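Annotated sample (chain length 327).
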Amino acid sequence: MSEEDANSPLTPAVKPGDTREANILSEPAIRQSGTPEAKDPELAKQAKLGMSKSLWLGIVATILLIVSVGSAFFGYFVITPFAAGLTLLGTLWYVSIRRRSSSDGVIFYSHSQILYYWPIWVGALVISDLTEIPGIATRVDIADAEIMFAPAQMALFHLIVVAVVVFFTSVNIRGVWAVVFAVTLLAIGLTFSVLNWWAEVFQYLGGLSLHADQGFYRVMGVVLFVPWLLVVFVFDIRRFFHFLPTQVTMVNEIGEGEKNYDSIGVVTEKKRDNFMQHMALGFGSGDLILTPKVADREVIIFPNVLRINRVLDQIQEIREKRGRNLL
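Output written by the structure step:
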């Protein structure tokens, strides 16, 4: 310290030989060094990019909700944009909760099987809106009331989608066989529809005929969409893992205690053997297996983790930071 600096009124008095001089920092420096973004410029860049994506997500969700609500003033409430807007708002809430809870680590959640049921309620809501378009629905007058029935082809295709989703979320067909089986089912269904063979099949089965009105699809979509929205964005986030540089915290239920493990020696493994469920329906989800370094080698299976590759990359980044801190 120079003599001029020592005589400055803004410089605290330090006695000769006092080691506290090395620890004196200005208030802005303390405030800046206390933020994770100041320590890691890449983290600050990611946070800024995340805020930009969240902003656009909120704008799109607001537009969809306004369009859907505004359609009610023209005589018909278009429900598909409304459900899409709520889903985007739920995604925005999900991302903000995950970012706020992560702090210096990474947090990830285990989701229920209902996560993969979105094609069912999406298809039902879309069909209910399409039947309002002139020329698509079949209008029938019953008891002085006009009822609009969806085309039989739409009803059949939605029925096939329901069967495929329920089957692949219940039966674990591994590897490429899942793709082959799903493509085969869809090809058979589409072939029968194009060649109009389903009518003959239904006639052979006793004269069956598929007729479902607009109200049925709307009620079906809402009944499935509401539980899906609550489970995915509210109830599933109550069970999570918090991976920190020094420890791993597992919470099975908020408010019911937690388990802590030393992060050193924890083995992480990705399991994505159900291609249709994890890739086609889950957009890159997978089951995460953690094996902590404990005496009994407890194996913890965390099913249906969204964007599991991204989660593993973040865990690897945390481990690299821990290694640099130990040097």
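Annotation: Confidence is low (pLDDT under 50) at residues 1-39.
Annotation: DSSP finds twelve helices and nine strands in the chain.
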